[in-house]
Design goal:
The protein is of the alpha+beta class. The protein has eleven helices and 19 strands. Helix 7 crosses helix 8.
Length: 418
Amino acid sequence: MSILEMKVPSPGESITEVEIASWLVKDGDYVEKDQPIAEVDSDKATLELPAEESGIITLKAEEGEVVEVGQVVCLIDRDGAKPEASSAPKTENAEAPKAEEKVVEKPAIVQEAKKEEKPVATSYATGTPSPAAKKILDEKGITASQVSGSGKDGRITKEDANTASVPAMGGTSETSGSRGSNTTKLSVLRRKIAARLVSVKNETAMLTTFNEVDMSEIFRIRKQYKEEFTQKHGIGLGFMSFFTKAVTRALQMYPDVNASIDGDFKTNYEFCDISIAVSGPKGLMVPVLRNAENMSFRGVEANIKSLAEKVRDGKITVDEMTGGTFTVTNGGTFGSMMSTPIINPPQSAILGMHNILQRPMAIDGQVVIRPMMYVALSYDHRIIDGKESVGFLVAVKEAIDNPVEHLMGGDERKALEL
């Protein structure tokens, strides 16, 4: 017998243990080589575990169990025979029992039970307690409306009052709707996210500053060039490329926003690795655009599309989600009008985008309707001063309000590579 011991591979640097989120096969199943057999959660991502060989599998770890990297989690018997699919043809005998079924007529008594019942006549006496019944109900603290009368014309009798029970405090004696609950264990990823968010609130001097941007020019550019851009590059022209380029420009103007703090030391980065928050089936992920400051509009859109697809398909790697220097999150896709985003450690700042609303604005002494968006910058006040944070957000606003001048070098078509 040739047995292969399958061990947990290392999902990435600094990860020492994972949790078996779910087995995709059962004990004793035959598995093919490279077939996904389990999903494992680390503190950074959920990854699939593929079978290393074909054969009969024996599970050595339970769902929800935390196992160390390098630990044996299953055995594969490479000598196990692949089961043959059953191909036995159906016979006429298999249908025979249906042909012999007899139709049994229901007894007449059942049919008589379906006769329409006469409604009970109601009158002034319906629901009214007799004097003796009223005294009993008053002593119990029960109202007449909570008791069904069995007397003539529905009158509440002494016997009805004696058998009536006191309703539960704060409501009637009967409840409606489900009152069930379901408790499930948080995944390793969700527990890690929770711990990181709490540590950010406790260990950083986080503040948030707000501004608003006018999306009119971006709307015009997208309307004018969107179809041509898609036809030439095979991708859509969205808002994220404008905001990513606006952020990289502002980071170069205010380098302390593109920094991190470690104890008594501050590290400034000469590159802009922008983390883009993407919602996936396992929760919010933040894949990273490496050297986004050097990307064109086409490059930003293509990379965001590729990373977002990997997140939604569960194929994103740990390396693709680590090392960002600044984060952009778009709560506007879910309808958020304003929020205070939480810093993604060890970064020192995060930009929050929100939904776009048509609002009246005063432009050159005239009230006009413009598509406006609130933007929020949360930052660590330990290394970023108020002047820098406000200046950074104003720089983002300038670029979004006038993208042709600040992001496109005055030439829209050249910037979009059309």
